[in-house]
Design goal:
The chain has one domain: Spore Coat Polysaccharide Biosynthesis Protein SpsA, Chain A. The chain is built from eight helices and 13 strands. A hairpin with a 2-residue loop joins strand 9 and strand 10. About 35% of the residues lie in helices and about 25% in strands. The two termini are about 20 Å apart.
């Protein structure tokens, strides 16, 4: 299976740490975030990576192939400083459209078992869900059907948190059929709304509401997963890993 890895962003909120280093190459507990992602992808059986780069892409290209040890295809978001992740995902269209693939944000630190659960799921279209009742403004909230607690009905950062069952952490798997529809939807949304505000979750949300996509939530329970956006996030994750949040043998 192929994996689309989104690593194009500037990560301005992490400056000065990211002045000369892309966020995905920052180290947490002595291991770069990207290397952790690559190790998890290999462990889950991914055989090819499609990396969407942008900011400081040469530093990523210098290490990613060696770390993965398999084929890596690169696509560049030339306007990474003017767009959101929907535009970055669209850059991978020519490589994965009409094929099943896993998608992974390049700024998350997680127990590799999280990815294995998604890849091994019987559901062709699914996402990793961190169950939580303490969601804030920045988390991508997930609503599910009360009669079918795995079927996602809404997914959006701006949803009221009270009715959310948890957070989408940025790991998804899509079928070949959904892949074709997804890219068309992202393209149409960017044409209508512009790329500056189009996160890929907005396309997921639209397709779920239309009934075009039956997206399943894979509850990862207490398995560790966290997104890094700020220096505070980085410090929190560092402390968590030092305390054993992810078993050392799986990091």
């Amino acid at each position: 299976m192929k994996a689309v890895l989104l690593v194009a962003g500037m990560s301005s909120r992490l400056r000065p740490l990211t002045d000369d280093t892309p966020k995905c190459l920052l180290s947490v507990a002595g291991v770069p975030i990207l290397r952790r992602c690559v190790t998890a992808l290999r462990s889950a059986g991914v055989t090819e990576i499609v990396a969407v780069t942008g900011y400081l892409e040469d530093t990523i290209k210098a290490v990613l192939g060696d770390w993965f040890g398999g084929p890596v295809t690169y696509r560049r978001n030339d306007i990474f400083n003017q767009t959101q992740n929907g535009a970055s995902l669209l850059c991978a269209r020519d490589v994965v459209e009409g094929q099943p693939f896993v998608m992974l944000d390049g700024d998350i630190v997680f127990d590799p078992e999280v990815l294995r659960l998604v890849v091994a799921s019987e559901h062709a279209d699914c996402l990793a869900l961190r169950p939580a009742d303490d969601l804030g403004e920045e988390e991508v909230k997930v609503y599910v059907d009360p009669a079918d607690r795995t079927r996602v009905t809404r997914i959006h950062v701006s949803l009221p948190p009270a009715d959310a069952v948890g957070e989408s952490i940025g790991i998804e798997k899509f079928s070949a059929a959904t892949s074709a529809v997804l890219f068309k939807t992202i393209e149409a949304r960017i044409a209508e709304h512009g790329a500056k505000t189009e996160y890929y979750e907005k396309a997921f949300d639209q397709l779920c509401q239309e009934g075009t996509l039956t997206l399943r939530a894979i509850d990862v329970g207490t398995l560790y997963c966290a997104e890094i956006d700020t220096p505070d996030d980085l410090a929190v994750v560092q402390r968590a890993l030092e305390a054993g949040a992810i078993p050392p043998g799986t990091r």
